[in-house]
Amino acid sequence: MPESLSRDEVAHLADLARIDLSEAELDHLAPQLSVILESVASIQGVASADVPPTSHALPLTNVFREDVVVDCLTPEQALSGAPEQEQQRFSVPRILGDEQ
Amino acid sequence: MSGGTDTTASWLAGELAAGNLTSVEITQRHLDRIAEIDGRVHAFLHVDTEGALEQAAASDARRAEGKPLSALDGVPIAVKDVLTTQGLPTTCGSKILEGWVPPYDATVVARLRAGGLPILGKTNMDEFAMGSSTEHSAYGPTRNPWDLDRIPGGSGGGSAAAVAAYEAPLAIGTDTGGSIRQPAAVTGTIGVKPTYGGVSRYGLVSLANSLDQAGPVTRTVLDAALLHELIGGYDAKDSTSIDEPLPDLVAATEQGAAGDLTGVRIGVITELAGDGWQAGVMSRFQESVELLVKAGAEVVEVSCPSFVHALATYYLILPAEASSNLARFDAMRYGLRVLPEGVSSPSAEDVMRATREVGFGDEVKRRIILGTYALSSGYYDAYYGQAQKVRTLITRDFAAAFERADVLVSPTAPTTAFKLGEKLDDPLAMYLNDLATIPANLSGVPGISVPSGLADEDGLPAGVQILAPALADDRVYRVGAALEAALIDQWGGPLLDKASGLEGVA
What we know:
The complex is a heterodimer. By secondary structure, chain A is mostly helical. Chain A has helices spanning 7-16, 23-40, 75-79; strands at residues 85-86, 89-90. Chain A is 33% helix and 4% strand. Chain A has a two-stranded antiparallel sheet with strand order 1-2. Chain B is α/β, with parallel strands linked by helices. Chain B is 39% helix and 11% strand. Chain B has an 11-stranded mixed beta sheet with strand order 1-3-2-4-6-5-10-11-9-7-8, with helices on both faces. In chain B, helix 4 links the parallel strand 2 and strand 3 (119-123).
């Protein structure tokens, strides 16, 4: 497994994570991320194949509740933090790109 | 010096019950203290003077009718800014949520209100709880009341500093990898991370949802037990909430404070000592263990070999969960929205990218990118999958250790508080602060940090961590209270009496 990240790889990951990074940020973050990755890579091979994974601290089972109406936010409350709203809806920039 | 705020919550509760003090008097004293010193400590991101006094007046009215809502009715509290508060800003220390006022209360906050505790304000934290120094707050760092040039720990440095500086008798923190316990250690206060699922996460803005847990930040073990009983217990709104009654934590504290630990087996963890551990921290730890022995406890050394991999495991699981949890900050429904420059008709994705660049700080970006990498196809098994397996090994280590010991102990953090700025641009050095606290989060077990004294090298506070098996939170209170009582007896008073960082301020 590669244990370092190139500047291009960091730029690609940031794109996947929907974060614009300036050239200066890439210069700053890419070497730091390589150091962190190198460190965490030390766990490779620590657990053998027969060890089951743990996803949660305590064993969980799915939780259901009765299908009854309970109090919830009003539309005004739900929209109260919206950067923009229109006709009691969240107003967002265009979703489709030119190529779509 | 602290305007009558250097008391405890349980003492204040007694004075309220006896009619010697009113909640308005108590709340006003704390607000005065905040006004006087918080310009230098910066424990608070938002102070709700008017709201706190209104809630205090309502508490006094209930009290006059003989109808208090809880033992702590009227005792004010500070809340970490990662828990939603209806009508009060909630920023998580991030620019992306600047000015956001949630339309609902977290369950912890709802329980504080139902118990009648006036909310003084919201405390500072590392952005989205990512950090060990509070320096990653977008609103500037909190300073340690012992030495204003030093960090108060993190991510909950604001809550710990507020309590250490007598700005609040009680506070709420959250602990994902040590964010309650490590600040407690470096500020000479008490912090408890309950068993995972013991306190509701509803309304706690998720960092790593399989690790996050809210808990009490106080100056005494008894105050922590009183607060824990108020906020803990089953909540149908949190699917990971434990549907079982809490153990009797106040009774366990009283039992411990009586000083007899006969028959209690204390396990000292071999792996949490050695190179990189400050000598003064280790000396205070060893003395604490000796005091526990003097109280009748039996000490065994236990080895948890997988703990050496805990840090790496945590820094894969946490970024993976965080990268997914923080995807909700997309500039669409709440929080910041930034339009990219020079784009005539930006798409939602363009806006999201521009917003997250401006709205997130360096540490958040580092962890989101690392998490995105760890979860990406081709690397998933090698990183995230492997980390989940090592998590199993760490839990097995705990299980084996708890066969031989009723509680496990270690220093809470490897060092005392370091200078502001010292580790800000060295992420790995920063991560090492949580070396001892992380295993408990990975396995969900409860832990407390109790002040163990001042390190010889620098005269700064150190802490002892006591861990118990999942659901046995009462044990950390029993042993914590016994240690607290023995140490206060030895010192001739609480450790915080020696804090000098704010001398001459008042």
